[in-house]
Amino acid sequence: MQHGDLIIKADYLLTMEDDLTVIKNGAVAVKGKNIVKAGTSEEISKEYTSEKIIGGQGRVVFPGLVNTHTHAAMVYLRGIADDIPLQEWLEKHIWPVEGKFLTSEFVADAVELACLEMLKAGVTTYADMYFYEDTAGKKLEKIGMRGVLGAGVIDFPSMYAQSADDYFRSAENLINNWKGSELVTPCVAPHATYTCGPENYKRARELAEKYDIPIHTHLSETQWEVSEIQRRYGKTPVEYLDEIGILSERLFAAHCVWLTDKDIEILAKKRVGVAHCIESNLKLASGIAPVPKMLKAGVKVAFGTDGAASNNDLSILGEMSTAAKVHKAISEDPTVLNSKTALLMATRYGAEILGLGDKVGSLEQGKLADLVIANLEKPHLTPIYDIYSHITYCMRPSDIETVIVNGKIVVDAGRLTTMDEEEILNKARGWQEKIKGSSD
Amino acid sequence: MQHGDLIIKADYLLTMEDDLTVIKNGAVAVKGKNIVKAGTSEEISKEYTSEKIIGGQGRVVFPGLVNTHTHAAMVYLRGIADDIPLQEWLEKHIWPVEGKFLTSEFVADAVELACLEMLKAGVTTYADMYFYEDTAGKKLEKIGMRGVLGAGVIDFPSMYAQSADDYFRSAENLINNWKGSELVTPCVAPHATYTCGPENYKRARELAEKYDIPIHTHLSETQWEVSEIQRRYGKTPVEYLDEIGILSERLFAAHCVWLTDKDIEILAKKRVGVAHCIESNLKLASGIAPVPKMLKAGVKVAFGTDGAASNNDLSILGEMSTAAKVHKAISEDPTVLNSKTALLMATRYGAEILGLGDKVGSLEQGKLADLVIANLEKPHLTPIYDIYSHITYCMRPSDIETVIVNGKIVVDAGRLTTMDEEEILNKARGWQEKIKGSSD
């Protein structure tokens, strides 16, 4: 009999391994940071013993959810402007506030709130694109969350950097500071085809190859972007990035709303990962990405919330439910994006497109223990006939009871264990007053 | 100084009266079943005193949400079959289970679970279409929820009735039993244009006129229905119901997905209310109703969840968020269905299309006290710039703290006060085992 640091039991265990079998009365044994075994409760009991056994009756266990595209610090701009056209939203609201408030201190405080919200909603990993990611990295270590932090690069100066050299210096610093970290994966994030010319994309690729890290970008989000890139380069955004050699398994691209069939073929062939941000795309009226077509063509698609300013929350459960429903109506086919596929996209596919597929995304021996326990004993989750259906169509962040990242319990009975929740909310309220005051 | 039975205070009070003003530091005074005054906390304090003051800091108060179309008892079939074509869903799953289990006892137990779920999600009134509504009415009185209960009518026999006379006898009994009830409004519910011929629609109208009650029907839900009615009568479903004299302010029609411009004109002119069921329509791949067009034409549109078998929950907050986002993308216009409109549809418009507009739907002197208090002190609701935006895009059922129906607190600190929650869940689990067993 071996000793485990922690054993998690549940009525339903979803490992999200290849066959997507539901293990009834399942258990997971954790030792240190790792899963040492996942199987039926009976199997685990025969091999492992532990002083700490959690979960149990009326519970389901599945891998931590992965948010593959966000701008975490923008959580401080949640709901600051809605229901208005994209350009007005950006130019009159988002950019002016960022221009006035975007500092390392802003990011430090805002990231705490974003992580708090995500962890309580069962998100254990997020991929970010923003500035001051070094600051974000420190917060991730403190709060105990996993992140792929993308140092933003754009062709023009900002409060954060004055030149391309500046942006890339920051990106290289980020990489050197975090390469080898357990929780933080550094990443380079050229913003988009319309804000980064070929030079900066190529520099990003070189940096990524030199340090073997992922590249994070926005791609084909709006019809305007597609016409603009057509006008500049005579190509679709996907063809353009392909031509300059950016497309590879290393790249994960957010949005991919406006794609030709040829674009989809290219994405599949070059094994680019796609972060589908349905709620943001709907809310900004950007359009609806051809996800069933991409999946069919073999493109790996996962979910992203985008920033809270355009969503307006950071819940992957919400993205799953919205996507699974909307694509049925758009495809005029109720069989597309079924509930198993939705959870697969939210877990294993998410980890894979971020280059973390060997570490997290499913519950199997040797992987890091990133997982959630949800409470099924709720009116809206009763009765139960199909656990995948319930997670995709009914489950809410408030059903998430326990969250484990890297073997550590970071949410227990729905409360963050690593930092004081009230303090995080109070900081946010302080910033809210400053930001409100500035626009009055 | 007058005495109130209850005073509710909040940082934000949304009365949903005509101008949709946000009252900061607001309060509502309740005496018996009625609102005696709503205004600023200062105004209320000058006129009213009470031993019971609830709500307070970090809270928002708004009218109870109205679910204008559901089949409450189908909550027992939640998630029994998903991600399959409509006909297969109905014929292989829903109808066989209903055929085997649909009794008065089934409805009695299932309605408890549906009411529990809805009340905890801030829904204070629902409009139903099903069978054994007498049983449902008794449950509503026990649990303390408001309902417009529609006795179903179809052209063919069922477990519940053998003939048209049978269906209408049941409907008339329902009316006689509940006419004048405070919580229950009886209603007649001819199922749909493809399941009820003109005779039964006309009998329903006569009954409704005789007793001055509403009519509830399904209308233009699928493309198949539109072609079928074209084939049978050479008209669209809307034109057909217009021709036989069914369209009036008395009628509220669920779905209205497939409408011609002329249909929309007719619905506006005849003042028919529409129950928009976006999540069900998406999930069954039925299509997306032209809501912005209907609103522009002056049609009153509210939200419905449809049954939990096709949604899969009974949350109006979910419908608001989904609808506000989806219509933006479909219209390619981020300004449509803004957050104020969403809450208006979910409250005042909902009450109005059910014929309850003079009683509930907004918080004003003399109306019945149906209202909710939500807790804003949550990560996903922080910071706050616009309270309407937060309710539409971020609020979740778990934020609903207190629910008052007819002046009585039925949910307190998130728990039902009128019945035992655990007992309701246990009954549901018993039925789940029977239903599962029957299909094994």
Question: What's the helix count of chain A?
Answer: 15
Task: Summarize the amount of helix of chain A as a percent range.
Answer: 40-55%
Q: Low-confidence runs of chain A (pLDDT<50, min 5 residues)? A: none
Structural class of the secondary structure composition of chain A? Answer: alpha/beta
Reported for the largest beta sheet of chain A, the result is: 8 strands, mixed
Structure description:
- The structure is a homodimer of 440-residue chains.
- The radius of gyration of chain A is 21 Å and the shape is globular.
- In chain A, the strands form 4 sheets. Chain A has an 8-stranded mixed sheet.
- In chain A, α3 (104-120) runs parallel beside α4 (133-143) and α3 packs across α15.
- Chain A is built from 15 helices and 18 strands.
- Chain A has helices at 41-47, 86-101, 104-120, 133-143, 164-178, 198-211, 223-233, 237-243, 261-269, 278-283, 291-297, 316-331, 339-353, 387-393, 421-439; strands at residues 2-3, 6-14, 22-31, 34-40, 48-49, 53-63, 65-70, 123-130, 146-153, 184-190, 215-219, 251-255, 273-276, 300-303, 371-375, 400-405, 408-412, 415-416.
- Chain A starts with a strand and ends with a helix.
- The first copy, chain A, folds into 2 domains: 2-63 and 367-406, Urease, subunit C, domain 1, CATH 2.30.40; 65-353, Metal-dependent hydrolases (TIM Barrel, Alpha-Beta Barrel).
- By secondary structure, chain A is of the alpha/beta class.
- In chain A, β12 (251-255), α9 (261-269) and β13 (273-276) form a beta-alpha-beta unit.
- At the A-B interface, α3, α10, α12, α14 and α15 of A face α3, α10, α12, α14 and α15 of B.
